[in-house]
């Protein structure tokens, strides 16, 4: 199950909104287990009080394309995280054998509570707090446990989460949609990312250079670049509102490791890693691979209308690395590529005209689809080799290719009548069937 984009805890750390005892009563979140690694916050590597392997090496802000990036500096502000969120990945030591032998009641496991740094971006000698942000970044190591309910937990949630939260000007991301943040993370080299998803635009996640070992752990850089996006919100993932009540502006992503069950949905080719899927949806199901259609399936869900009553227009961005594209579709990015997006809706409504653009950027292929409407579209994305045009013999850094949008015909629904004794009811569906005990009349 996909986490909601821009959860309350990512809009602003929940520890500032709720008392600490609320976390003890809420099973949703990290679960502390003796002897197991724990989810932890990422602080600046320059301080790193918990001496965690994973930390933030640097943060830069680029106000708009073409500008020189501004190097961020941490301030004195430290925003505490969830009390179950540690300051390092180190497992909680098990009680000593003497304590166990006495048969005493074991204490509840606890951690040294982690925090998030605030970053400011001085320009030369001029320092202003207007652009200050809190980098809400966390690592869920493999075998650390995450729970959605008291009896629904999983220790295959290996992931980094990353969110940009304005700390001084709440409208910072709304008023500066072209801002681009680059966060460089020192990560254990054993972490290999398989997929990226979230609510943001112009997202690029890549490996950087190898770094020095930390203790006995080999490390390297993971570099994430992301820009803010507007998301209409209303209702819940299971009961989406027709009309949004508010619009949020944020930039947050999840970088799923290969030891995360979510990556399994993309099939064997997903294990190559590097597929990145982001949108302006309030909720999305994890991308999956449709073997029959040979397409990546993305299901999005957001209110159909904006708060002012106008139609909410969708945005989807997919970045495909060369190796994954070759595995999934047997296409060579050095050739002439065609991107296509097929759109359908659960309620059978016809899709509006959408635009699709595709271009080669280095060893990646970027697909952007926009203009489709919400509330719950399913998009099937694929690449094909365009054999109609001879492949170019020289490849530029950016190569624009032909694209197309496929519309799925509206699904026709039928209504039947069913009877059980003196009771009758109508059933409407694509393939209607009477409930158990009822007969069609």
Structure description:
With about 450 residues, this protein is mainly beta. It folds into 3 domains: about 1-280, no CATH class; about 285-410, no CATH class; about 415-440, no CATH class. It is about 5% helix and about 45% strand. It contains 6 helices and 29 strands. The protein has helices at about 10, 20-25, 95-100, 170-175, 265-270, 320-330; strands at about 30, 40, 55-60, 70, 75-80, 115-120, 135-140, 145-150, 150-155, 155-165, 180-190, 195-200, 200-215, 215-225, 230-235, 245-260, 275-280, 285-290, 295-300, 315-320, 335-345, 355-360, 365-375, 375-385, 400, 405, 415-420, 425-430, 440. Strands 2, 5, 6, 7, 10, 12, 15, 16, 17, 20, 22, 23 and 25 form a 13-stranded mixed sheet that branches. Strands 4-3-11-14-13 form a 5-stranded antiparallel sheet, with no helix packed on it. A hairpin with a 2-residue loop joins β27 (about 415-420) and β28. Mean pLDDT is about 85; it is low at about 1-25 and about 390-410.
Throw out a few tags for this protein.
441 residues; mainly beta; 3 domains; 13-stranded mixed sheet; 5-stranded antiparallel sheet; 6 helices; disordered N terminus
């Amino acid at each position: 199950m996909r986490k909601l984009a821009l959860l309350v805890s990512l809009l602003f750390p929940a520890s500032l909104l709720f008392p600490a005892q609320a976390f003890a009563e809420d099973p949703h979140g990290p679960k502390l287990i003796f002897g197991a690694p724990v989810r932890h916050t990422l602080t600046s590597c320059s301080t790193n009080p918990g001496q965690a392997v994973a930390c933030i090496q640097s943060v830069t802000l680029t106000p708009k394309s073409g500008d020189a990036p501004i190097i961020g500096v941490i301030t004195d502000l430290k925003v505490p995280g969830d009390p179950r969120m540690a300051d390092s990945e180190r497992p909680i030591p098990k009680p000593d054998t003497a304590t166990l032998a006495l048969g005493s009641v074991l204490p509840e496991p606890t951690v040294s509570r982690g925090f998030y740094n605030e970053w400011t971006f001085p320009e030369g000698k001029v320092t202003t707090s207007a652009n200050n942000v809190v980098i809400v970044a966390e690592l869920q190591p493999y075998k650390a446990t995450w729970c959605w309910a008291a009896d629904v937990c999983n220790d295959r949630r290996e992931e980094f989460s990353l969110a940009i939260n304005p700390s001084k000007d709440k409208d910072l991301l709304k008023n500066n949609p072209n801002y681009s943040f680059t966060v460089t993370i020192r990560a254990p080299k054993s972490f290999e990312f398989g997929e990226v998803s979230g609510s943001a635009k112009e997202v690029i996640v890549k490996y950087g250079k190898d770094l020095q070992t930390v203790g006995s752990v080999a490390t390297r850089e993971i570099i994430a670049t992301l820009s803010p996006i507007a998301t209409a919100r209303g209702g819940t993932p299971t009961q989406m509102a027709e009309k949004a009540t508010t619009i949020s502006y944020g930039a947050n992503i999840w970088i799923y490791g290969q030891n995360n069950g979510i990556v399994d949905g993309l099939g064997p080719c997903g294990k190559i890693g590097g597929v990145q899927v982001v949108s302006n949806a309030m909720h999305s199901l994890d991308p999956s691979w449709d073997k029959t259609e040979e397409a990546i399936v993305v299901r999005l869900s957001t209110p159909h209308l904006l708060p002012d009553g106008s139609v909410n227009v969708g945005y989807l961005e997919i970045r495909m690395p060369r190796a994954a594209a070759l595995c999934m579709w047997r296409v060579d990015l050095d050739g002439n590529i065609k991107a296509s997006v097929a759109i359908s809706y659960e309620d059978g409504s016809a899709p509006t005209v959408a635009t699709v653009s595709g271009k080669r950027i280095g060893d990646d292929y970027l697909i952007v689809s926009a203009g489709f409407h919400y509330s719950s579209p399913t998009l099937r994305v694929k690449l094909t080799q365009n054999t109609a045009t001879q492949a170019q013999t020289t490849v530029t850094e950016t190569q624009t290719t032909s694209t197309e949008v496929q519309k799925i015909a509206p699904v026709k629904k039928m209504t039947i009548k069913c009877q059980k004794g003196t009771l009758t009811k109508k059933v409407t569906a694509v393939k209607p069937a009477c409930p158990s005990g009822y007969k069609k009349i």
